[in-house]
Amino acid sequence: MRKYLFCLRQRYASSLLIWNFLGRLPAGMGSLAIVLFLRAHDVAYGRLGAITALYAACSAVGAPVLARLIDKRGQKVPLPVAALISGLGFALLAGFGVRHTPIVLLGVGLAGFFMPPLEPALRSVWPSVLPDESTVEVAYALDSALQNILFVSGPVLVVLLYGAVDPATAVLVIGGIAVVGTLAFVALPPVRSWRGAERVPDWAGALRSRTLVVLLVTMVFLGSLVGVLNVATVAYAEMLGRDGLAGLQLAAFSVGSLVGGLAYGARQWTGDPLRRLLVISLIMAVATWPLVLVPGPNLQLVLMGIAGLGLAPVLTCCFVLVGRVVPTGTVTEAFAWITAVFLGGSACGSALVGAVLPHTGLTTAFALGAAGSTAAFLTTLFLALRRPADNMPARAMAVEGADSP
């Protein structure tokens, strides 16, 4: 815990985490909030699914676009403008309901595309706030662990909010949280002064790094594991006639990831982070296969917790690698790509297992998730064996910060 306390005692570190986490809450609440809002207006599941998919797609596309703008212009203008436009999208949805389909689509599209990329923005700021790279890695581990709290708390907060107010007000509140959290985050001096380093004009941006491209493939497979579990746990709970069990299983997975992330950050690591990524991804791949046994609920909860232990450490290793290998001036965009492809992989995993499950069974469903984590390890192994020379400065973390031009 001393390493975490040292990190949080650095000037502005706690404030950065608190306000960034508040601003990121709607990212974990938006999809479910839109689903519940549409169902409250008796929207059919087919139309509901299409609208929710639009929100997810716009979020995935918007994050790297906005992050590239942040790398070019800094954070103090793009982030609040994006938050206000996203809030406007939620307001359109709440104000007009579902009577006018074009307005619904416009509102959902704006809310998703302009959801401020606070997660990559924070990771870009850390090197300018913290004293050394080892402390930055602790911050990444803490951030990855807190992301699991967001995954668990977001849906719970949506349900509580919908129980307290009407659906339209709930949607407005969620949009407002994004605006308030973003404005408070941007008001902090390290955020206002942050500038991306000079970059070479290039349409590919961060994707010029071949190492990053391979890491993105790893993230797609890792995201597919999470997407498969989101659906397979519901089917498992329905099989046993215990609806609440699905949430408990996912909570166990998230708690495992939280514990793994905190344990990873508490240790002083040396050497190549790619080697650590390879070892941890192997352990995670092995840990997911026992889920195919589909045991009783108590043992299943234990297995879910064990399977989740490696998620946050794997993400932390990826963040460290990204900061070292991407082209100068593209670090925020690179972090946004990590998030976007992870969510895209999750969506693909959910869609795949949803299509397969009616024709097979739970063993096959959980096997698909384990196959995703195994593919993530194999991709990492490929990177370790044939690590490309990116032919670019591997010091993105060090050069981008408050004193950058």
UniProtKB/TrEMBL annotation:
Domain Major facilitator superfamily (MFS) profile: 211-405
GO molecular function, one term: transmembrane transporter activity
Predominant location category: membrane
Highest taxon of source: Bacteria
Compartments (UniProt record): Cell membrane
Transmembrane segment boundaries: 12-38, 44-67, 79-97, 103-126, 138-162, 168-191, 212-232, 244-265, 277-295, 301-322, 334-357, 363-385
Topology with respect to the bilayer: Multi-pass membrane protein
GO CC, alphabetical: plasma membrane
Entry keyword set: Membrane, Transmembrane, Transmembrane helix
Protein name: Putative MFS family arabinose efflux permease
